[in-house]
Each structure stands twice: as structure tokens, then as C-alpha cells.
């Protein structure tokens, strides 16, 4: 078990670029079809609110969904399957799942990955949104 843990630590070495609120905000105001902000929370969490222009791809289905063909992906999630070199920003509630999502995307050949580590908690605090319990 220890050996597996060490391998995981090595893989985490590369670490996705961390995006700050200040860097993310303009992307939500002028969304680009070439860049995705991906919310990896579960759908019931997304109902409480999400970052403008983001798309939902729950972490629980992320590993399998990246192998889908583009047509199946779009049918299932309602947006085009991201290209391997497309800029992707991942976020969740507190930054833990978004970090895992970055790892998964990296292992699946995606190269332009960003982690909004402050995630939903940071966003709501900065935007003055009262989180619903």
C-alpha cells in the first residue's frame, strides 16, 4: 500500500496551474467556447449555485467520461467533449475534488489544465453570495 501511495505522490508532482479568483472572474464574464470551466461537484450540489458559464461534469463520472466518443459525451453532458489541448479550469466545493480532477485529466492526456483551488467556497465569499446550507 505504501508503494502505491508513493507513486501517487510522484504523479501529483506536476500540479496543475492554480487559478485565483482574479484570474477566473474575467473568464466568467467573457466565456469562450474554446475554454471550459468545469464544475466537478455532484448535480445536487450544483443546484445550490455554480460559477457563471461553468459546465457540470461530476468527478464520480469523470474518469469514464473522458473515454467516450464526442457524440456520446455531448449527448450525456450537454456540451462538446473537450479537446486534449483545450484550456480547462476545474473547480468543486473546496478544492479537493478539483485537484483530483486535474490529476485524472492529466492522466487522460489533457495538457492545458487549471485548478481553481478556492473553488465554490472562495467564489461565494468573493461574490458575496450566501451559501445555502
UniProtKB/TrEMBL annotation:
Entry superkingdom: Eukaryota
Annotated GO MF terms: thiosulfate-cyanide sulfurtransferase activity
Pfam family, one: Rhodanese
InterPro entries named among the record's database cross-references: Rhodanese-like_dom, Rhodanese-like_dom_sf
Domain annotation Rhodanese: ranges: 31-128
GO cellular component annotations of the record: mitochondrion
Name under which the protein is recorded: Rhodanese domain-containing protein
Amino acid at each position: 500500500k505504501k508503494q502505491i501511495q508513493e507513486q501517487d505522490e510522484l504523479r501529483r508532482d506536476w500540479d496543475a496551474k492554480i487559478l485565483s479568483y482574479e484570474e477566473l472572474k474575467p473568464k466568467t464574464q467573457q466565456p469562450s467556447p474554446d475554454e471550459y470551466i468545469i464544475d466537478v461537484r455532484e448535480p445536487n450540489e450544483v443546484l445550490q449555485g455554480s460559477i457563471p458559464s461553468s459546465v457540470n461534469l461530476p468527478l464520480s463520472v469523470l474518469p469514464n467520461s473522458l473515454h467516450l466518443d464526442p457524440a456520446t459525451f455531448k449527448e450525456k453532458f450537454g456540451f462538446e467533449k473537450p479537446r486534449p489541448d483545450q484550456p480547462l479550469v476545474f473547480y468543486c466545493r473546496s478544492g479537493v475534488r478539483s485537484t483530483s480532477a486535474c490529476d485524472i485529466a492529466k492522466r487522460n492526456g489533457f495538457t492545458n489544465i487549471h485548478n481553481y483551488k478556492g473553488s465554490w467556497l472562495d467564489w461565494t465569499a468573493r461574490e458575496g453570495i450566501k451559501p445555502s446550507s
